[in-house]
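Reading a protein record of the kind used here takes only a little practice. Think of the row as the fold of the chain written in a discrete alphabet. With that in mind, consider the following protein and its fold in token form:
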Amino acid sequence: MKNKTSNEGRSARRESPRSRVLGWLRRSIESGEVRRGDELPTEREIAKRLGVAPNTAAAAMDEAEALGLAVRLRPGARRRYAGEVRQGGDASLASSVVFVLAGLVEFVDPSTAPSWADAFLAMGILQRLSLRGRQVSFVNTNMMPDGGLDAIFAAHPCAVAVTGSVGGNAIAMETLRRCRETGIPAVAYGNAPELRDFDRAYSDHRAGSRDLTRWLLARGRRRIVPLFPNEPTRFWEHERLAGYAEAMREAGLEPHPVKVFGSPIVVHGRTGENLRVNAALAVAALVELRRDDGEYPDAVLSVGDDWAKPVLAAIHDMGLDPKRDILVAGYDNMSRGAPANGAAAGCDPALVPVVTVEKHNERTAEDMADLLLARLAGTLPPEPQARIHAHEVVVLDPFFVR
């Protein structure tokens, strides 16, 4: 064993550190030392064995996973060898592995992601497919190495699932395009026009916003204004605005145009400084609405629960009561699984909207997995299928009765 490790180290020094790890893995497979389904060493063990940095070993094993050589069967488990090696060393999964692609930014560990995050959806698909006997490989498109997409299709996946905001993700759209060209079954999350040629599953944002607006109208609110951090550009944002407009006109009221407070922050701002900046901008927007309309709105529709926080902070800063003067509605139910007062872990209860929409992403994950399995089994009609599941309007403040 000592001589073997020494020989590995000497022969590998001519390679780059990352290639050294991948070369070791391929040689181990070709020699039969590692067989399909075997657990692979941890990244720390690989680093010690080959004399590379732990982060290099981790990056190489991530690449091995993108190539289809390695897969995790459950969160936190060791990677296992998932495929076989063809002559010449190319990875092949013998059309047995489903790839799940998601662009993760804030929650890189899908096993700990909240229910509204893309990572939660991706993990749900992985778990359901694994439980049904499918080999699954997860790929974070935001961490994909150069040539990673080519490697995925070189591995001949039997199917692909794509989650997240696909319309704004060039890698995701290219993945779907290649699936269509090669005839590989693919399922996508959402209902944007560019997804209509694929099987897809989603929650109806238009219906959710319509029901949210109806809830506010039923409580006597008439001056309901959508207050967004930036100009709406995404398909689901326009769908929510359309649902709001439908409910307002249904009640004989003219919908207000969306009011933008102009947040300079691209991603959701959770730090104290980001919150203070956005709250000040929201105050200015509310003051403008009062100047233009003669009075403040009596309810606000936010893009989501997270973006409701600066609006709620602004209302408090102005000396108004968010339970009486201006009700704030969120979306995505980010406090799911939190205490009864609706406060998510580490969140000030004063910054939780009074009402929100639960999309039930666990059902979307199940729908996406079911669509893939049915497509692979040949039990679906040839035309693209859509699965739409019911949302739920959730009152987060149990003491609100008005």
Residues 1-13, 84-95, 337-346 have pLDDT under 50 and may be disordered. The domain at 1-91 is CATH 1.10.10.10 (Arc Repressor Mutant, subunit A). The radius of gyration is 25 Å.
